[in-house]
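Entry 12.
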Amino acid sequence: FMYTKILAGHFEPDKHVKIRRTRDGFGFRIHGSRPVVVSAIEEGTAASESGLDIGDILVKVNNNNVINLPHIDVVKIAQNCNEDLELELVSSSLIASKTPQFLRS
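Predicted 3D structure (tokens):
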């Protein structure tokens, strides 16, 4: 299911989160390119309390469509944000629920 979505370039966000920047950053890490995926969330940060989950796919960052951008460009958009980072995502739980069971073992 996910690979079909990637190949088609069609992702409908089902999750919206807002994360306030602190002097230590936003409190999460991403990996991959086209699409970029949340790979780590630091405990005790705004990111950990925002509803963000590991595996979520970034669709928009501050209203910029990032689904087809390379990793470095997504990082630059986020780094240019001084206060709140607004993310539109495809939930990792939605992806898992639509992935055939034999792929999830």
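Annotation: The helical segments are 2-8, 71-79, 92-97. The mean pLDDT is 83.
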